[in-house]
Amino acid sequence: MTGRQYASLGCVFAGIAVALGAFAAHALKAQLPAYELSIIEKGVQYQFWHALALIALGFWNHIQPQRMLSFACGFIAIGMLCFSGSLYGLALTDWRWLWPVTPLGGTSFLVGWFLAAVTLWRKA
């Protein structure tokens, strides 16, 4: 994917985070226990912050295309799908098989941040 495509994907993820946060706060508040709502809120928080990071890294990669930065964007996008997606699934369904996916998403976030840091370090 190009930097612009990653930035665009970040915008989509940010919009989804806002929609899910509003849906949880209004429509699900009376339907779910507080613990499940807190799991959704955590997923929304991580998704939103990483969506903003994906927008920034995508623009950076658009201005100065770099292979490692593309990988960083990819890992952050995969992290959002795995980490936040599994939290949503765990809170809204009985699919307990999703629990191992959450740390895989967290690890993907960490790899993405590490690759972004290495890219920045090399450019300094």
TrEMBL record:
Pfam families: DUF423 (PF04241)
Compartmental location: Membrane
Chief location category: membrane
Membrane topology note: Multi-pass membrane protein
The entry's keywords: Membrane, Transmembrane, Transmembrane helix
GO cellular component labels: plasma membrane
Residue spans crossing the bilayer: 43-61, 68-91, 97-121
Coiled coil regions, renumbered to chain: none
Protein family per UniProt: Belongs to the UPF0382 family.
Protein name: Inner membrane protein YgdD
Organism per entry: Grimontia marina
